[in-house]
Here is the input.
Amino acid sequence: MKVFVTGGAGYIGSHTTLCLLEDGHEVVVYDNLSNSTVHSLRRVQELTGRVVDFREGDLLDGDAIDQVFDEGGFDAVIHFAGLKAVGESVAKPIRYYRNNVVGTLNLLESMEKAGLRRLVFSSSATVYGDSSDVPLVEKSPLDATNPYGRTKEQIEDILSDLRASDPRWSIAILRYFNPVGAHESGQIGEDPQGTPNNLLPFVAQVAVGRRDKVFVYGNDYPTPDGTGIRDYIHVMDLAAGHIAALGYLESHTGDFRWNLGTGRGSSVLDVIEAFSAAAGHPIAHEFAPRRPGDVAVSYADPSGALADLGWSARRDLDRMCQDHWRWQSSNPYGYAGPPTSNDLSSN
Ligand code: UD1
Here is the structure.
């Protein structure tokens, strides 16, 4: 298939692009590089020996998307591009709704014009809000609690309405739990700009010596060790889930929703312990107050994806931490490398 991948230079996008190429697909990546770099795609090319056709572009520029689709031959779109920082979305809701929702509307309009009606969309377990009814199943009620999460929920609704208006659409909505880890080569991985919001990249930066200690947000949750429980999923398992969904859409029309998680919960302390073992040294941490908006426990019931797609996550938490560590220790400062004197402010 010829696949148009929005956000393909980012963390999940680059790993999925690698898997698509290894599977023999042709890939055109469309990315505005607002939170990513072309280095990830260079490394994907090195790892696969295949060419990534990269187009720098923004989803807010519908004409630019049309121009790419005018080249013809596309069979499907995988749509990763989007802003994803919860705290920033609370501070800048208009930016989030415009970028994520309007950007997706532009993409869908361009797809319609091009007669392209096969789409895999990156949603998130964040759409379930603070439902305490675990494991979360796809029909659990949706109740996102912040603008970022609401953009995902709104896009899901838009996609349902679109498919109801035209039964020729094939749409897979993938609700990711907590993506972590890296390709086993250690050559591509998560490269957050600034202070990481999420647990694994923070732990990894402490492990590699870029930060002093991990702040564990809350040790008074109603969980066995008092810390929050999440369903961490290896990014390569997640990438495989996209390939499986794409295959499903080849022979099914409709709009489908699948949880992509392992079905197993791990606490913050479990993660720190597993990462310490992977890194070969203890990781300093300190208990801190709960982070506003966090839930105690979240994990998936991934049986829908197994039944429909034959997909399940194969890599466990130890493997996630080992692969994440290989990436972080080989690239302590991410793709850009260590800061140079030119990066220092002159005042
Ligand atoms: C967060 C977002 C979610 C988003 C997801 C993307 C919030 C409230 N939720 O999920 O919308 O889809 O990232 O991956 O931001 N923790 C610490 N110390 C840290 C960081 C995290 O103790 O420095 C704890 C958290 O309290 C939580 C767990 O680690 O219990 C996981 O946190 P995180 O990686 O941020 O993911 P989520 O909160 O599940």
